[in-house]
Amino acid sequence: MLNDILQQHWLSKSESKAYLATLELWTAPVSKIARKVGEWREATYYILETLEKKWLVKSVVMNKITNYFAISPEELLEIQKWKIQRLMWAMPELLALRNWAENKPKVSLFEWEEWLKFLYQDTIKKEGSEIKAFLWYTNADKYLKRYLNTVHLKERQKNNVKAKILMPITMKKDKWYEPNDNKKESKNHTEIRYISDESFMMNNEIDIYDENKVWIMLYGTNEMFWLLIQNKSIHDMLVALFDLLRKNWDA
Asked: Which contiguous run of DSSP H or E holds residue 230?
């Protein structure tokens, strides 16, 4: 139990064991502390050096031999109080840094094909949510088509995640997605509106979901990568663009 408590205060398991052993022995050389904790002498020496840098043990030379002794539990408590006090003093600056960072877009680039499953799962993990997507699947990789049309579609329905999709009218002729979308259960979760090819000048996919996420996908076999942007302003801007286009085109 004492080990667990000490590990909550920025000590590793080996550091907490060495501190407790040194406290119990009062004053002892490295060899004796090493036997107490069941570690090699060299490893124990390194651990004690680390504890000394953290002010938890001190060293003293006695008869030309370096001995170590632990600070008292009362001193340990005072150190933790002092650390908390310093943290409280720094809190306004820390909060200011976080607020500044939260307003910056967070961008992640994925290039490994297996990340597809992770990223598509991210769009449907919130039950009852909604995805807004610009889609063009003509040059989609076969692996992607199979995954989306089987596994992902079923999981999306299970999580009751609805998708509103804008596609070029050419995609009405594409049969890899359409059959499943014609099923009653799919229609309850998917709404597709088609835009004239001349007005729909994109060759890949943009997914807008959650409250602040935009996923841009290039999924052709020869240019497969995915860009995830987390930023509410960018998310809301694309939602407004999507809603504007959707409003001005018939289903």
From this structure: strand 225-230
